[in-house]
Amino acid sequence: MPLTLDDIRRARELIAGAAIRTPLVRLNVWDAPADIVLKLENLQPIGSFKIRGAATAMNMMSRAELAQGVLTASAGNMAQGVAWNARRLGIRCTVIAPDSAPETKVRAVERLGGRVIRVPFDRWWQTFSDRNFPGIDGTFVHPFDDERVMAGNGTIGLELLEDLPELESVLIPWGGGGLAIGIATALRALKPSVHIYAVEAETGAPFTASWKAGSPQVVDYRPSFVDGIGSKTVFANMLAMAKDLLDGSFTASLDETAAAVKLIAERNRVIAEGAGAVALAVALSGKAGKGPVACIVSGGNIDAAKLATILSKP
After folding, report:
1. pLDDT reported for residue 286
2. Residue 16 is part of a domain; what is its CATH number?
3. Which of 92, 4, 16 minimizes the C-alpha distance to 52?
């Protein structure tokens, strides 16, 4: 069944006590090319929007499903969302992570009591399709291809329009697509005129290539500090939903994204990870119009050393 506005409104009830309602603030740059606002999902208890989808999915599971423990595949943020909720529910959590997963995210999962198994990137990506991992018991929580997860993500869309009814455009990081589909479903139902764009780092932009081609494409993915998004391809069903809901996509270079990380830290005193700054990088290019343009700052879980390097650049 397609995701609906009612599903998202129900998810809002389910995430109460887990996710917080994050603030929407203006970027403190007076000569920006657009009226830019920031949806600060980096302020969630786990530093990422992923807590919304994880809480929704796990609160909808049966006791029998939860008794098996939970399993997910994640580079770090969904892993933390699932581990946080598993700790709250008193159940086991296992995470399949790519060997390139940042240490700060892996350590955060372990602090929450989760078990992390690192595997090569291709094997990690295969877990998304398999929805299980050999030798590991647990109910699988899909990071993006799950209507319950997308419904939780969609609660961000409800908050955007309640806080900024005059919203004209929104820029949403695309990892697997669950964030974009969730938010877009809410916005299309409540204000169809809003322009909705996915954003990616140019070092891993399969959605942009697939959008242009009209079918899933495989791209050359290069790991970088933008570790919360980026892959080699897209799921066909996620692309199909995106075609019905989104207006297109944009990419940003690593230099543009690093500059956005630095700018948001200096001007708004906000820590954004690479994936959380890509939307701002695109907004600063003027590609999304004059605004108001909302940038989803999807997370703030960046390694301290990486952040220090970015902030030290002239």
Report:
1. 93
2. 3.40.50.1100
3. 16
Helices (H), 37-177: 50-59, 63-67, 77-89, 103-111, 121-130, 147-163
Residue that is last in its domain, among 96, 114, 140:
140
* 184 vs 194: CA distance, rounded Å: 9
Note whether 40 and 64 are same-domain residues. Answer: no
pLDDT less than 50: residues of the chain: none
Active-site residue, selected from the candidate residues 39, 48, 50, 231 = 50
User: Which two structure tokens, joined as six digits, stand for 109?
Assistant: 């999962």
pLDDT of residue 102: 84
Instruction: State residue 258's pLDDT score.
Output: 97
Domain of residue 102 covers 51-140
Q: For the CA atoms of 304, 110, 38, 179, what is the dihedral angle to 10 degrees?
A: 130
pLDDT score for 228: 85
Query: Where among 122, 140, 158 does a domain terminate?
Result: 140
Number of structural domains (the chain) is 2
Integer Cα distance of 97 and 108 in angstroms: 13
| Claim to verify: residue 67 and residue 195 sit in the same structural domain | no
Query: What is the DSSP secondary structure assignment for residue 169, as one 8-state letter?
Result: E
Bridge partners of 139? Answer: 70
Any catalytic annotation for residue 298?
Answer: yes
Decide if 55 contacts 18 (C-beta within 8 A).
Answer: yes
- Distance between CA atoms of residues 313 and 49, nearest Å: 28
Token pair 């929407």 is at which residue?
24
User: What is the pLDDT at residue 227?
Assistant: 87
Residue 248: CB atoms within 10 Å: 14
Give the predicted TM-score (pTM) of the model.
0.94
**Catalytic residue from among 169, 231, 249, 298:** 298
Is residue 118 located within the same domain as residue 253?
no
Q: Is 50 a catalytic residue?
A: yes
Q: Are residues 159 and 301 in the same domain?
A: yes
What the block records as the tokens of 91 is: 């159940």
